[in-house]
Structures are given as structure tokens and as C-alpha cells.
Specification:
2 copies of one chain form a homodimer. Chain A starts with 6 loop residues before the first helix and ends in an 8-residue tail after the last helix. With 434 residues, the first copy, chain A, is an alpha/beta fold. The first copy, chain A, is 50% helix and 9% strand. Chain A is built from 19 helices and 10 strands. At the A-B interface, helix 9, helix 14, helix 15, helix 16 and helix 18 of A face helix 9, helix 14, helix 15, helix 16 and helix 18 of B.
């Protein structure tokens, strides 16, 4: 293999890479400070050596919260060009990362084209693709074949891979003994659970974790340690299965870093708002502050059709409490594959959650945007408001659809506009409000 | 006046009213326990003696979080029948209260019809209506005329009225001295600010507060103490103006209770997520745990078009931390009057926030809904999921728009459905996932 160099090994050696410089510039921080976070495992820069189109970005608790968009081809949505329209849309709308969760079809060309054309981080889940690319039943997949899928994705230039190494035969026994309300809802986790149950063999991603790490190190792939026991219901959250796996993921993250591989930790999931902050503390302690990548948290189970909202609530509090990376959730969650419009809503909700979290934890530069918006509001500067809005198109359209009687106000208050009238009074003029 | 009796005086006298019984039944708690909360001012049952159509409900920190919907006629939306279609829609979608914020036109008949036909609590803001119903300039409104508007609304059967008694000449001087980023954004607050500035006179709602209370006591109108200094930007939140007013509102609430009048406190507003919990603690201490009615909190300023999401984030954490009553916010906030569809989105987002808060603070019965949904999910019981969904129509429509290859799964994962495959394995069957 020769001597490996990754962002982590370089940072430990005190060298500042171009990727660190570029990612630090995006954050508006000193590259040396970012390098120190990377060296400590508190930030990761997922950047496969082969991903030439990438604009490197860092994820970490003290950095701007990033958002991921899930896309990919499937049997029910096999139109490659439609999916690439989504990819372009997602990047335009502000996605920081795209995970290719293709579940059917000719995944290799799709993945390679995605890497070639995307300036954002690309992630994959090799457990899915092992099932798709091999012409055999799940239980007949060999240990080698699971591992070789990691290598194939690494060679294709993927920046981070979800590795479900935390679920083991011991987990399987635990889950059989005490049934959770919703068992395993992680797709990759369920595949390994089924494979282990049917073959009686240990999880190859766990058993051969060092081999996985060597593959990742050779291409500087960041391991995203998958949480197979992610709670699928409020009832199952912060239970033994979830917390035991988090302990295991912390151990695996340390092994990754020791081998020069950057690691991030995947997390919940469905969870009461009352548990979110404790879960962020738990991850920080158990996993040495490795970047925490959360799916949600979805704070109520009863809102299918509105899970972009339930996850914005949980995601905002998670980010405010230390999560570094939010996986978007769309209104289609729990119901069907998302359309382009669903994706748009999911991205906006996730960006709002991320930004709200950044304001709350005092990320430099976050609040300035809000201050500029508030000044534009006080000045009734509508063009200024639109240009600062997270979704200028929607803001502009909403106002245009309902013309106010006074140009400077809006139809919500009309002549009773508080902003206008207070401005007038403070400038020494009288007002009427009819 | 004779001897007044209100829910508060009755509760203090140890009598349990029909309204207490009905509201307690809705909560699933003992009427005596609710009466004790009402006696302490920790819960309010806004129920005007004249509001015959009302199904009484209580608001309070230890009760189910309630949501309010703002409606009303205005110059830009003067179609009374269209507005009543919204009223019926709001009630059908789960509003617990409707505030009539009419800002123009023939408001009396609208208000009386609203009270006559509505089973939910009705609130108004007399400061707006004084301006509308009187054929004179704002500065020429007399002190008597402001107060008489409260009486008119009380006689029309309104259950709660926003009384902007916390803003005084002292506040005016403070706001002139140190300019906030967004000054006063409360519409009623800005009217009184302008009136005081132009006339040099003290706020009549403050100066003649005891008269206001006597009117409210006579009809058992709950005073909702308005926060004129509600922050209109993250920058202005939890500042001297806001906190001083909250101190004053606590004093006014005590005066109300001493006079037998139920009181609730209105609150923020735009606010960083990091400040929400502290604000809930502050209100509880300064106002003796009087029910807290919040508008948002809106956790970032930069998302016009998406403020149903920004306020769901803040509202959920507020409810989880003690807020009793959430005012809905629609995607049209800051841009225009809401349409029916905007109202629908605002209600769903507010209901999600309220329910998420109820789960987090352990309101009895809240989590049970989620548990039943999770059981339906584990059983792939789609009809069960739809019937338990907060928005059955949307959930059903989303799934119907994208038919899966296997009837029991959905197009998100298809044959890789984790729930289905884990169920199969746990029942001792093998699975394939192609």
C-alpha cells in the first residue's frame, strides 16, 4: 500500500492541505484552526482523491452546519436524466452533500457520473449496492463481496461511505430478545440484520473493519459510521439498542482515526424533543466529538406528509446542541420517493434548521445575515429582503400575488403597518392609519 | 356592577363550573385539578358568558398546548364569505382558538357572527378596532373611545382580548433613546406608540387598567396581555425593552387576578433558538406561571415564505419548555395576507409544534398517538397510518401518487423495505430484497 496520506494524517503532521485552505475559507476561519480540528477528529473533510470536481468542505460541531440530500435511481424511479435534474437542482438550492442511495438499476455509471459532475461531497451506502450489483440472493452474498463493494465505491471517487459496522451478532440477539416498537428501520442495517440472521455469520463490515479502513485510507474516503439501530419511533429512542451501538461506533471511530481515516457518526432518527440535547451530549462524549450526522431527529411519529417540518424542529435543536451535519427529510418521507418539489421543500426546511442552529451556537457570520435582513425589513426595502431571503423566488412570488394598497407595505397590515408607522413617528412625522 | 363571578372567582371559591368540567374532560384530567390551576392563575378558561356556541377549553403549561389561528377582514381581503370559509376550515383542521384581526370594514357584524357560529375560543385586539370603527384620525381618538372598544367586544361575546397595557410613556422614551434593529413590530403596540407620541398622553389601557378589568370581569373576558415590544428580529430579542415589558405584564397579570380576571401573557416573536428556554423560565418566574401565549418564536429572520417552519421550530421548543398557547404563523408571514392554503400549512405546522412539545413535556395521552402510529408502521398497516396521521388527506394523497411494486411497502425503499424485511426475519422466514 505504501505510506498513506489523508487529510487526517496531513493535519496530524502539521501540514495544511489545499482542501483545508479551501474549506477554512468557506468557513471564514484560519486554516490552522481547521487543521487542528481535523487532527483531533473533531472535523472531517470528506474529499476522495479522485473527486476532481469537488469544492472541499469540512463538517464539525464548530463549523457551519451542513446539509445532505438523498437521491438515486430505483425501480420505481429509473429515469436517470430526471434524477440528474434533481442533482443539479439540489446543488443550486444549497445542498452541501448528496448521498446516492440508488436501490436498483445500473448504479455504477450513475455513481461515476455523479462524482464527475458534482462540486459537492458525494456519499454512498455500499450495503445497498452489494445487493443490487450482484446477481444473487441476499443470503448468498459472500463476506468478500460486501467488502469489495466498498473498494468499488472508493475507486469511483466517493467522498464518504456509510459503513454499518456497529450492528453485530450480539445486536441481532438483543433485538430478538426484546422487540422494539419498530425494530430496525435503517435500510442498510436491516440488510445486514437479515444477512446475519440467515447465515449465522458475523457482520463482515465489523469483522473486517481494518480492511475497510485500509481501503478508505488509500482513497481518503471518510467513514460515516451507520446506526443500524436508529430509532424508528419515539418509543424506541435512546434505548439500549441505540445507545449500545453508539458506544460501539465511538470505538470504531477511534480505530478509524488510529489508521488515518476520518470518521463521522450517524445518528437518530425518531426522538422526543426532550431527548435531543442529551443525545448530542452523549455522542460528543462517547465518540470524542466526532462530527455527528443526524437524520432528523423527527420529533413526532404522527406527521407523515409533514416530516420536513418534524425534522426541521429536531434538526434545529440538534444543530444548536452540537450536530454538524443534517440529512434532509422531505414531505414524502414514510410515504414514497420524493419528487423534485418534495426535494425542494426538504432542502429549504433543512437549510432553515441548519441556519437556526448556527445562530444559536454562535457560528461566526450566521447572525449577520439575519441582521441585514432585519435592517432591510425596518427600511421596507423589499428588494433587499428578497435578495437576503433563503428562498428569494418564493418570497418574491408570495408578495407579487397580493398587491398592497401602499407600495411600501404588504397586505398583511396595509396602512396599519407597524414598521412604517413607527419609522414615521421616530422621524418626527405624524401618522394616520386609515 | 353587583358581585362578579368568573371562572377564576369560582375556582377560588372551590366551585367547579360546567366549563371546568368540560375543559378537564378534554384534557383527560380531574376537574378539581384544573380548578386548582385556574385558582392559581396557572390555567385560564377563556369563556365569555355570552359565547353560547363555545366548547370551553383551558390553556396552561400543564395542559395540552393549544393553537390559535388569526383571521379577519381587511381592505385587501374584504370578502366576508371567503373569510368564513376559512373560519370553518380552521376549525375543521384543529384550531383551538381564532383571533379576529379584522383591520378594515364592517367589523361588528363579522365579529358577532364569528362568536355565534364558533365552538372555539374567539379573541380580538380592541386597539385595531378602535381605529377602524371610529371615523377620525388616530391621534384624535379619545381615552374613553379606546376603553369603550373593550366594552363593545366584551358585549359581543369575545372570550379573550389582547390588551396592550404594558407599553407606557416610559417605553416610548426608552425606544426613542436606543433604537432597536426593528423597533416595534406589534401592530397594536405601534398604534399605541404612535398615539402616545402624537398626543403626549399616557396609554389609556395602562392608565385605566382597573376599568378595563371591570369590563372583563363583568363578561368573564380573559385579558391577554399584549407585548408591544415583541422582538421583530433576532437582534432585538431578550433586550431591555422586551424584558422590562414582561416585568410590567407580570404586575398587570397579578392586578387582573386580584380583580377576578383571568390573564394570559403574550410573548415573542423573533428569537434565537438559544434564547427560547430562558424566555420560558423568565415568563414563568415574572408572571407566576400564567399561561404563556407565543407568536413563534421565529428562530431566523431570513426565511420569508417559510415562517411556518421557522415558527414550528421555535414553537415546539417553547411548548416543550412551558409555553401553553401557540399563535400559528403561515408561509405568508412578512409578505401578504394568508390564503386558505397558507392557513392550512400554518395550522399543520403549529399543530406539529404543539404536539411535539406535548410529547416532550409528558402531557398525558400525547405519546400514545405516536405509539399507535408506530405500531401501524411496524405492521405496514397503511389505513391505520392514515387514520392516525395529523393530516390524513395529505398522507393518503402522497402515497396514492406513487404506487409501489409491492402493495405492503412504499416506493422509497420498495423490496428493500427495512420494516417488512425485519418482520419477516423475526417471524423466522427468509427474505430476498430484489
Amino acid at each position: 500500500m505504501g505510506k498513506i496520506t489523508t487529510q487526517l494524517t496531513e493535519a496530524r503532521a502539521g501540514r495544511i492541505t489545499d482542501a483545508m485552505r479551501e474549506a477554512a475559507a468557506h468557513e471564514g476561519i484560519d486554516p490552522g484552526r481547521l487543521a487542528a480540528m481535523v487532527a483531533d477528529g473533531k472535523a472531517a473533510i470528506p474529499a476522495n482523491r479522485k473527486h476532481a470536481a469537488l469544492k472541499p468542505r469540512a463538517v464539525g460541531r464548530e463549523l457551519k452546519t451542513k446539509i445532505n440530500v438523498n437521491l438515486g435511481i430505483s425501480r420505481d424511479c429509473a429515469d436517470v436524466e430526471a434524477e440528474f435534474a434533481k442533482v443539479r437542482g439540489a446543488i443550486g438550492l444549497g445542498a452541501d452533500a448528496i448521498m446516492d442511495l440508488s436501490s436498483s438499476g445500473d448504479t455504477g455509471p450513475f455513481r461515476r457520473r455523479l462524482v464527475e459532475t458534482s462540486p459537492v461531497m458525494i456519499g454512498t451506502v455500499p450495503a445497498y449496492d452489494a445487493v443490487i450489483r450482484l446477481d444473487k440472493a441476499l443470503k448468498d452474498i459472500t463476506s468478500d463481496e460486501w467488502i469489495e463493494t466498498v473498494r468499488a465505491h472508493a475507486e469511483d471517487g466517493v467522498d464518504f461511505q456509510t459503513i454499518h459496522a456497529g450492528i453485530t451478532l450480539e445486536t441481532v440477539a438483543r433485538l430478538r430478545g426484546k422487540r422494539r416498537k419498530t425494530g430496525i428501520v435503517s435500510r442498510g442495517g436491516s440488510l445486514l440484520f437479515a444477512w446475519m440472521s440467515m447465515t449465522g455469520r458475523e457482520n463482515p463490515f465489523f469483522e473486517r473493519f481494518d480492511e475497510v479502513l485500509d481501503i478508505c485510507a488509500a482513497h481518503d474516503v471518510t467513514v460515516s459510521l451507520g446506526d443500524a439501530c436508529r430509532p424508528g419511533s419515539i418509543a424506541d429512542s435512546t434505548d439500549g439498542a441505540q445507545v449500545s451501538e453508539l458506544v460501539a461506533l465511538g470505538d470504531l471511530a477511534r480505530r478509524a482515526r488510529e489508521r488515518g481515516v476520518q470518521a463521522i457518526i450517524e445518528g437518530p432518527g425518531h426522538m422526543s424533543l426532550s431527548d435531543v440535547q442529551a443525545n448530542m451530549v452523549l455522542e460528543r462524549r462517547l465518540c470524542d466529538d466526532a462530527p455527528f450526522y443526524v437524520l432528523g431527529p423527527i420529533v413526532t411519529d404522527i406527521a407523515p406528509g409533514w416530516d420536513h417540518v418534524t425534522s426541521a424542529i429536531g434538526g434545529a435543536l440538534a444543530a444548536a446542541s452540537g450536530a454538524a451535519f443534517l440529512c434532509y427529510v422531505t414531505p414524502a418521507e414514510h410515504l414514497r420517493l420524493p419528487t423534485f418539489d418534495d426535494m425542494r421543500e426538504g432542502i429549504m426546511a433543512a437549510r432553515i434548521a441548519a441556519h437556526s442552529g448556527d445562530i444559536a451556537k454562535g457560528i461566526p457570520g450566521a447572525r449577520e445575515l439575519d441582521d441585514r435582513m432585519s435592517e432591510a425589513r425596518r427600511n421596507l426595502d423589499w428588494e433587499g429582503m428578497f435578495s437576503l431571503a433563503i428562498d428569494p423566488e418564493k418570497a418574491r412570488r408570495y408578495r407579487a400575488e397580493s398587491k398592497p394598497e401602499r407600495e411600501d407595505t404588504c397586505t398583511m397590515c396595509g396602512a396599519m403597518c407597524a414598521v412604517r408607522n413607527v419609522n414615521e413617528i421616530l422621524e418626527g412625522r405624524e401618522v394616520d392609519v386609515k
